[in-house]
Automatic annotation (TrEMBL):
<comment type="pathway">
    <text>Energy metabolism; oxidative phosphorylation.</text>
</comment>
<keyword id="KW-1133">Transmembrane helix</keyword>
<dbReference type="InterPro" id="IPR036418">
    <property type="entry name" value="Cyt_c_oxidase_su6a_sf"/>
</dbReference>
<dbReference type="GO" id="GO:0005743">
    <property type="term" value="C:mitochondrial inner membrane"/>
</dbReference>
<keyword id="KW-0560">Oxidoreductase</keyword>
<keyword id="KW-0472">Membrane</keyword>
<dbReference type="GO" id="GO:0030234">
    <property type="term" value="F:enzyme regulator activity"/>
</dbReference>
<keyword id="KW-0809">Transit peptide</keyword>
<dbReference type="Pfam" id="PF02046">
    <property type="entry name" value="COX6A"/>
</dbReference>
<keyword id="KW-0812">Transmembrane</keyword>
<dbReference type="GO" id="GO:0006123">
    <property type="term" value="P:mitochondrial electron transport, cytochrome c to oxygen"/>
</dbReference>
<protein>
    <recommendedName>
        <fullName>Cytochrome c oxidase subunit</fullName>
    </recommendedName>
</protein>
<dbReference type="InterPro" id="IPR001349">
    <property type="entry name" value="Cyt_c_oxidase_su6a"/>
</dbReference>
<dbReference type="GO" id="GO:0016491">
    <property type="term" value="F:oxidoreductase activity"/>
</dbReference>
<dbReference type="InterPro" id="IPR018507">
    <property type="entry name" value="Cyt_c_oxidase_su6a_CS"/>
</dbReference>
<feature type="region of interest" description="Disordered">
    <location>
        <begin position="89"/>
        <end position="108"/>
    </location>
</feature>
<keyword id="KW-0999">Mitochondrion inner membrane</keyword>
Length: 108
């Protein structure tokens, strides 16, 4: 039993996640690594997320005025076996009248 507690104590000291600033093994290196990842997050990660957001917005705006595709009444698409439990039962929950056709065609 004593050997187990000795092992657990040495393991917890060796692999502790708290930074040590007393100059012992792992203190300064761990603090430097933490600072590195903090700076990478702020100066690389967040700008990359921002640039991706701008790219998505500009891509959406470039296709905003595209004409909708021609309606073709395929038999295997827009099958309604029972009504939706909201509204008139024919429109999906997130229906977009400009882009989503009904089984009969687009709404005018």
């Amino acid at each position: 039993m004593a050997s187990w507690t000795k092992f657990a104590r040495s393991f917890s000291r060796k692999y502790s996640v708290a930074p040590k600033f007393d100059g012992s093994h792992g203190g300064a290196e761990q603090f430097d690594a933490q600072l590195l990842w903090k700076r990478l997050s702020y100066f690389v990660g967040f700008p990359a997320i921002g640039l991706a957001m701008v790219n998505c917005y500009l891509s959406h705006q470039a296709h905003h005025d595209d004409e909708r595709p021609e309606f073709v009444a395929y038999e295997h698409l827009r099958i309604r076996t029972k009504k939706y439990p909201w509204g008139d039962g024919n429109h999906s929950l997130f229906h977009n009248s400009k882009m989503n056709p009904l089984p009969e065609g687009y709404e005018e």
